[in-house]
Every structure is written in structure tokens, then in C-alpha cells.
User: Fold these one by one.
Assistant:
Number 1:
Amino acid sequence: MIAMKMKKENLNDFLEAIKPFGTLWGPVKNGDNFSLEKIDDYSKLDLTALRTKIPFKKLLTPPKFSMFSFNMEDSKPAFDDPQKRIIFGLHPCDLHGLMIMDNFFNMHYPDPYYLERRRRTAIIGLSCVPDEKCFCKTTNTHYAEGGFDLALTDLEDFFIIWVGSSLGDDMIRECPQLVNENVDHDDLSKYIQWRQHRESSFKMEMDFTGMPSIMELSWDNPLWEELGEKCLSCGACTIVCPTCPCFNVFDEINLKQTEGRRIRQWDSCMFREYSMVAGGHNFRESRAERLKLRFTHKLQAFVGKFGEPACVGCGRCIDTCPVDIDIRTVGMRLKGEEVMA
Amino acid sequence: MKALAQEKNPYKPEPMRLIRRYPLNEDVHFFQVRAVDMEKALHLNYLPGQFMEVSLPGVGEAPFSISSTPSRPGLLEFGIKCVGNVTNAIFRLKENSVFGVRGPYGNGFPVDKMRGHDLVIIMGGLGAVPLRSLLLYALDNRDQFGKLYLLHGARKPDEMLFREEFFHMMNRDDLECFLTVDQDDTGKWQYNTGLITRLIPRLTDIDPEKTFVTVCGPPVMYKFVVTGILKLNVPKHQILMTLERKMKCGVGKCGHCIIGGYIYTCLEGPVFSYWDVIHMKGLI
């Protein structure tokens, strides 16, 4: 990694200069929420945005797309999304989520649909100060040393720019006049001050270490039934989760039944049909079982496989759940800790 | 629309031709297929216990255990029961029609580890489909295995899958073959009657430490069969079973076959040992 700095007023010129690297996408205020949108007007870019309602995954594995077009004899893969993109404003939680997704879609059988989009995407990270729903410190994802081409740390009147890849370096080379490569001791002090301020801003901290063994002992915990009673099976928690990759595949055909498309669409383990097989048997019939799968996946089994939880502490599911099921308090209750109402 | 990806597309089915089909019993049909591309047909490598995704444009995809053995290359065989959308459409296919198949997927049986051991194959009902692959594989490589036992149970004589094949095997001297039906409604059944568990005590001269037992059948069968096998002192990790889940993509991505939080059945299964079953929650 290389560090340099850039005056804040240079940001728009910088974004203009890196246009050849792709269409700019970034957080935009959208009612009470933020959403990740195509940026035509830099003034709409909102640097104060914490979490976009739907994370970056919508650009890399879109909610619904065609995998193949076919007629009754032949099928052709459809890569109908060849444009280059820059995603601006991913915070450390999302950068960790992105690294989890990259690894997931790269392993075993590499997924060409994700990887092709990913290859055409440049990532610019952005620092943040947490709100009351952020718990990335608990999941140890509050700093990101990877996952980006460039990352900006916002220090009031200037940014520290972290160059994380050769593509990021290429972007800087487009506008060397806008950056200053000399990061001095004063800048370092400001950076350390900012870190201390940020660290002290976390409202809710828990200890998620040792969660796998707690989960192992919690297989029959009555909490699952209790949460199952509350859960609406709406699947919103999985839709907004930056590390949930599951999808369904189905065919759409024209009326003449001569040609059609094989469609891939986001799916959710919260849905009843998710584990149902032909003949009607359902391996996870109850909502309690489905909730348990989601939490076991995020907090136990993923840790066993990859040494870290599949939860990056972004707070989206907490923000979105219509019945206030909160992964933090679920963890605390499983650990027998008292939860403040 | 351009095909630009650097990766081979793992979701792209290979065109295969339905060579012949016939009923195995009232609900289950036998399907013999071959890749249209002869080179691919001859070089399709797979293991007993692996499965393929059958892909019908406009209908969808579903996973099926391979019933043929890789020791007889060229043709792939399946035993398919008509239960859902995809299988209904498969049952409408006529001989010589071309459709999509992709795979093989899953871990399959660890035949390299099983070599040199005695092998007990216990199949009930539809469980005959995947285990027939292993049985034929062992017979084709007979000198690589020790003693070989087949225990096969069906509800009624007419329901027994591959029964003609197994009747012939009764005459072989390199295989001990026990067939049973829960009840004989024909009055013509010449073999055993009663539950398959009653055949387990006949496995008198196996060396449990050097034996692999493979089990596949309806869910209710596992518990009783495994209890019987454990009494013979076969180690838990040498009792293998193949399990069913909703293996939709087959390549560890779509998530539907996940169990116990992060086991993709399509990658780490469908063959699991009894030790897996007791330490991985939610497997059975």
C-alpha cells in the first residue's frame, strides 16, 4: 500500500479525471435512506452516507439477470453487462464483505457472471464514523487493509489516499497534480487523532470471540423458537446483507415455447421454499430452523471454514428487520448476557 | 451479448442424447444417455456416488445420482422417479431427444480409500440408483476389493429396482447377494422376506476394521441399518451414506443444499460418513 494525500476541494476534479476507468457509482440520499446510484452530478454524492440500503453486491451479482438465452436446440451464456464501473464510498465493513464475496465466487467453481463484472469494477473505499447500529469493531472489520483499489480517509480538510492496487495507482497517475505524495508527521498525528475519535464513537460493543462454541451448544436453545415466532420470513436481512450470495435459478420462455432465458435471482434462506425438494419434503420447514441456519452460518460455521465470521457488522439487517431481530442481541443472549431493551 | 468471461462457464449444460429408456418399476424409469460429442462422452470422468444436473430449457434443472459406473465409459445411466416439474418433463422425453446435462458434481465415494477393503453395499428403494454405480464399479475392479456383499431391500417384488440385474448376480461367486422384500404380494418371490435389517446378521465373516459399509435408502432406513452395522464394530468413519438435499446449482454457489451452517452438500457431499452425521448438525 502507498499513502498520499489530496485536498478535499480536489475531489470533484479527481473523480472527473478518473472517468476513463468507468461509470461512477456512489451513495446518494434517497428519502430517509442512502442508495448506491450512478453519479452524473457530483453534488449528489453524499460523503456522510453510512450504509446504503442495498450493498455493492447489487452491481456484481445483480438481483435478477439472464444467465443464458436459449432456443430449444442451443443455449448461449449471456454477458450483457460489459460496462466498466467505479464504485465509490465503500466503508471498511463493505470492503470486508467484498473480499468475502470475491473469495466465495472465486473458489471451487469460479463464477463467470460475478467475476466478469468484478474485473470491470474499480473500488474506492471511504472512511466513516459509526452510528448506533454499526458493530464492525465487534466483528473486527472496522479497518480494511485490502479489498480496494483506492481508499480515502476523510480528515476534515484533506483525504489520505491509500493506494491498494496497481489499478488504483493507474488512477492516481491520471491526475498527479491533484495529489501530494508527501504525508508528513502532522498528517500522521491527525490520522491518529481521527482514529481515536472513531474508536470512541462505537455505541455498542460486544465480544463475538468464541461464538462458534456458544453456537454449538445453542443448537436446542429455546431462543430459536422465540425468534421464529417473531420472524416474518420476509428475507430482508439476506437481501441487504453484503455477504449473502444465495440465488435461485429458473427459466422464462416465450408464449410459443421456442426460446427463453435462464434467470438467476437473489434468493433467501429465510424463504420457506428454499430447502424444499421435489415431492414437497422441506429440510427446514419452520422459521426457527431457518433463522438458526442464518445465524449458524454467519457466526459459527463460516468461522470454522475461514477463521472469521461472515458478518461484517454493517448494521443493515438491524436497520431493515421489520420485527427488530438484532444479530447483536441474538449473540449476547446466546452468551447469556443481559440485553438492554 | 458477448461471451467474454475467462472462466469456463460451470452452469453451461452439455448436450446429451437419450439413448434408451424403460420402466424399472411403476414410478421409476431407467434413462441411458450419451454426450452428443463422442469425445466428451468417452472422457467424462466421474466417481460412483457423484451426481449430474439435468437441464431442460424452459423447465429448469434438477440433480440426479449417476447409476452407471465410470469403468464402463461412454454411456451415463440414471434411475429417475417422477415427482416434480423437472422429472415430469424428463418423463415426456422420447428416445433420441437431446437435452442438457452438466456435472459430475459432489464428492462421490472415496474409492481410493476403499480399495483393499471388504465392501458391504446396503440399498433400499431408490437408494439402489447411486449404489448400483459403486456395485458395478467394484465388480469391474473385483481384484481391488476384498469380500463383496450386496443387501437390497424393496417394499414389494415389483418395486425392486434393477431386479433382473440382481437376480443374475445371485449366480456369481465373487459376490454375496441378499435380496429381500417387506412383503411378497406375488407369491412367487424366491428370496428373503422382511426388513433389510434382518439381513445384517448374515454378514458373519467380515473383518470390521477392514470393511466399508455404504448405505442409501429412505430416511427411516438409516437409523436401523446403522445401529445394526455398529454392532458389527465397523468404525463410524467407514460407514458411508449418500444424502439428498436441494442441490440446485451443483457448484457450491446457490446455497440451497447448505446444511449445518456452511456445508454445501453439492461440494462436500452427498456422500457423508456416519461420523460426519453425528458431528455435523442437521445432516439427518
Note: Chain A touches chain B through 55 residues (CB under 8 Å).
Number 2:
Amino acid sequence: MSSLGGVVVEAVDAVRRVPFDEFVAARGQALHRTAYLLTGDWALAEDLLQTALARAYPRWDRIVGDDPEGYLRRILVNTWSSWWRRKWRGEVPTDEMRDAPTNDEYVAADRRDAVRMALARLPRRQRAVVVLRFHEDMTEAQVAAALGISVGTVKSQTAKALAKLREDAALTGYGTTTTGGE
Amino acid sequence: MVRTDDEPALRAALADLTVGQPDLPVDRVAGVRRRHARRRQLQAAAAAGAMAIAALGVIAVSGVFHGARSTQSLNRPVPSWALPWDDHRDGSVPQPILAGAVSHWVADQLAKAPLPPNQPITMRPVVWYLGTRIPGTDHVVAVFEATGLHAGALALTKGPRLVVAHAAWSDVTHSSVRGGYAWSYVDVAAPSPGYAGVIGGYAPAGNADGGFDNVAWLLTSPKARDASWTVETAGGRTLSGDVPLDHGYASVDVGQVMSRVRINALATGPEGQSVPFHGWLGVPGAPGREVPTLVSAGSLVGVPQGRLTLGESSSQGSSVYVDGDANAPAGRPTTVYARCYSADDARSIRVTVDGDITRIGRSGVRVVCDGQQHVLPGNPTGDPTARTGAVGHSVGVRASNLTAWTVAVVIHA
């Protein structure tokens, strides 16, 4: 086993490890977007991303394999899940916060807001599945591995999430529409 | 029947949702390293604590640690851009009133610099640091930080803001002004999360002498255990003290003062190691905005009393007062009686009779602020009806917020 381990380490060493700073500069914004889709708030997303990066940072040199982004994404989702369990209290939303008045000129913003709210209403696991599957374009197997669930659960959670989003009419106006009956 | 193809639609919706992503923060990697360092410190502290408990074989009694305290715990999770300080909303001010402070501030920002109509709006929660009634006063103070594209105000797209809001308790609990004109704000660019100084201010408290004491409040890192301060009090005496901090917050009555409170050191660590900190109590980046109520500059002597004597008036900072009973033609000579002292580096005030209140600094007479009474010729009177359309003459005083003065003007018939 030890020799096998040695071979693995050697093989990984042969691949140029991306320095941490370089990785953050190159992929940070993409991961930030993923974090935003999970949290629904850019500031919280930055916080989530930095928390995940801080967890990866001390073991960066020991991350085995050539997919540090996948590793980061897994930490990101797991950290977000743990925040949820803790009932995130870092920021206390203010009551009675006034929004600016909206009108027809804000259609695009309203539509985005509808999607954001619909995503927020999804159960935690369904939301993570949706983001990884349809934003990160991960396969069902990759999503299953990232979330530590079975492929069958990924499929069922995806179907349920899509059904809820359809009920919410959040996707109206996006993508292609086809005419036909069922 | 029209049907949406769900998966492409969802991909498009998710991509669209990330429109408006903020620029890459310049300090992301530095922020990560700070978090890592803090995490290690916490782990080390936890390990040391566990070893100590194991060695002593005792279990700490909760009372030792002020179990009844109302602030959130040390190192509460805050966003990366915010100060990692505790939340000292103690329940003395109901949350809807504090929320009113935020919404009114947001409305102010929106009025100053609204976003273009097609700009998406993202609501952000704020991070609270303080929401309390200052003991012994009718004063409420709220401190929070906010960031980002907030309620459609362009001014809020330019980085986090630190906001200190003040109000009278009687105003915020009065339904007609609640959440409206009750609050006044000091609003600055938020200090960096590593800021190791203080945020503070003053609340006036009427005293038995008819003057005003100042209750100073101070907010800092929860690592600080106490703060040493000095202030110049009435009569020019220097008063010093150490105030223990409850997880980074304290308020203390410093009495009648002739200067701002200076913070000299913040003590941290179990042995009370001190971190030198030389700065005035106030809001970082807004010198002169948080000011104590100064002791009066004192009475004037030898001022002729009569129908054409305006004042005497005693105050602090710039102001204009109008005497509607004084009626003299334009062009009459005047004499200014004045006494002032300054708690900052201002050296003088300027007194103008019937001047343009927007240009007081360019006209009238300059009075040196040395604590002594000065008698100087003022500018001639103007048209008594020019300013307000009614009879009467005005006296304008231009002074720094930290300058106390007493002024009277005599118009010569």
C-alpha cells in the first residue's frame, strides 16, 4: 500500500499544482457565482466562498488530484449546508426594510427576483442539486459524489425541484418554449 | 398549449440570476488568510482551554462568564467586509425602531443618488453592532454596517458603509416622527475588517446645574477588556479613567467637558496588556462629527442692555439667530461682544450682522477663541426686512462644531 501511495503522490506531484493565489484569481468569481446561487446574496456568497477557501487553504498542497475546483465546490456546498443547519445568524435582517418602488421598467429585475425567491423556497438539498446540476453542469454522478447522496436521490430531487419551479412560474420567459399538447 | 422546456430555461435563469456580480474584491486571498489565522487562533485557544480544564478538573460556572450578558458571542460570523465585532443590541430599543433607522437612512441614500431605472435591485441585510438607550439620557444610538446595491441607491454600490444613528428616545417612540425625522446620521466608508480602533460618540444628559453632562459610548473589538481615556473638564482640569468593556462596549458619564474624550490605550489579554491607541472618541473618517456638548463659553460683561442689543446668545458650532424686536435702519454701526474657546484646532469664530448666512465665513468680524471676552466693531446693519420680509436683525456665527461661544451685538442708534 505504501508503495502505491508513493506512486500516487509522485503522479500528482508531476502535475503542476496551481498555486492557491492563482487558483483564487482564476476561479474565484465562478465559485462566487455558485455561492450566490446557493445563498441568494452576494455578500453572503463572498463570505461563504472565503470560508470555503479558508478551509481548503491549509491543506492546499495536499489536495490530491487535478480537480481543486471540484474539491472547493464540495466544501462550498457542505459549508453552506452547515450554515443552514446552524440557522445562519451572522447578519440579522432588518424588519420593515423599504424596497424601492418597482414598475414596468424593472421587468428583467423582477424576473430575476422571482427566480431568486423561487430558489430560496426550495429545500436545501434540492437547491444544491439544481445549482450543481444546471449551473455547474455537473453530471448526476458528480452531484451525487459532491453531496454524498445516491444518483437516484439526485434524480428524484432534480425532478421535484423542477416541478416546484414550474409551479412557481419562475422560469416563465426563460429558455425555449415549444407549442404542443401533452 | 405553450410549454417551457424546463432544463434550458433553468440554465438560462441561473445564468441570468448572476448578472450584476460584484467585481472581484481586491483582498479575497488576504481575507482567506486572515480567516485561516483566526481559525487557528481559535483552535489553539480552545485546545489550551480544554487542557486547562482537564488539568484543574473543574468546570467553569456560567456566572463567572457573565451568563446574563445580552450580546452575541465573540467571533460571531459576519460577512468578510464587516468588522468582526459583537452585536450589542440589548433589547432596550425595539427592533422595529432600529429597523426604522435603517430604512430612513436607505431612503436618504436613495434620494441622494437613485439608481438608473433598469438597474436591478438587491436587498441586503445590515450587520448590527449597537442598538441601545444610553443610560441616564434621552438618547438612542444605533450602529450598523451595510454594503452593496442596497434598495436601489447608487451611493450604496461603492463599498460598505458604517452608519452611526442618533435620536431622542422621546422622538422615536412618538408615532408621528418614528422612522422619519427622528434620526440623524454619521455615515462614512466602513473601516476595514481589521480596524483595531474605536467607534464612539456622546449623548448629552442634563445635570442639576442646568448644564450638560456627556455620556460617552465606545465600541471596539471584543478582544479589548478596558479602555483608558482622558478629557479636559470644566475649569481646565484633566480627568482620566479606565472603563471596563463588556465584550467591546461601554458607556461612561464623563461630566461637563471642554474637550473631546481621548482614548489612550485599549487593554487586551488576561494580563491586561495594553495596545496604545491615540485617538479622539468618534467615528473613524468623520472627525468633528461626533462631538460632546461643551461647557458654555461663559457670560459676557459690560454689554449695554436695550432694544437694539441682540443676544446674548450662547451655543456651539455655527448658527444664526434673529431678533424680531430689534428695528434699526440699514447702515448703522454695530459692536460685537464675544467670548469663545475651541476643543479642536479652530482658532476663531466669525460673527456677521444681517449677513448672507451662506457666506458668513467671508464677512463680519473674526473673534479669536482664547477664552477671553473680546469687544470688536462689527459690520453695519443691513436692510432689516431684506432677509425675512419682516423687521428684525440677525446675527450669524460661523464656528466649528467643537467651538463654544457666547455672542451679543449692539446696534448703535
Note: The first strand of chain B starts at residue 2 and ends at 4.
